[in-house]
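Quick one before lunch.
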Amino acid sequence: MSNIKIFCDFDGTITNSDNIIAIMKQFAPPEWDAIKEDVLAQRISIQEGVGKMFSLLPSNLKDQIIEFILNHAKIREGFSEFVQFTKEQNIPLYVVSGGIDFFVYPLLGDIIDVENVYCNQSDFSKERITITWPHTCDDQCHNECGCCKPTLIRTLANEDDVTVMIGDSITDLQAAKMVDTVIARDFLVKKCEELNIPHQSFETFYDVRKEIEKLVEVTT
Ligand SMILES: [Mg+2]
Ligand SMILES: [Zn+2]
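Model of the magnesium ion complex:
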């Protein structure tokens, strides 16, 4: 038996595009764009930026936002088959997401067990949407990630596990630096090339499955 553990991003990795950006484009007043620019330029942390963006939205939009996301977001090809494959192989698969519970869980539906999903949470009890952060950075991470992927990997993986990170963007980079195997698409590919981080690239989860099959072969 292999001791592979897989960590997989959600937005832009399991889904075809970024759901926070889609929600802001559809519902937020124009100020959201400056907050996004501040995050990208690293003038403010991801946690601060995401919190600020959602605080622009009234809580009573909840149902409309969920409906919008369910109608617009698409799960990447091969994902549910990939989850089945990991179950058959007894390979733990964790979703580690900077997304928010109210869209992550409905989009995943029953494809994957909820106890394997780690993301930010939301509170709609006040006038505006408040994001809460159950998985913040440990004392080894100072990025204010919001949902801290390096911290989750340190918590969930053991020394002798063969760790895999699947992701698409800058928010997966610190995790990519820690793991044994990186499977990347889009911006994360560029970053890995720039920093000489060995990686495989993917477009669908059928591609991901092939990489994991190779890994199973060399680790058993
Ligand atoms: Mg992503
Ligand atoms: Zn962190």
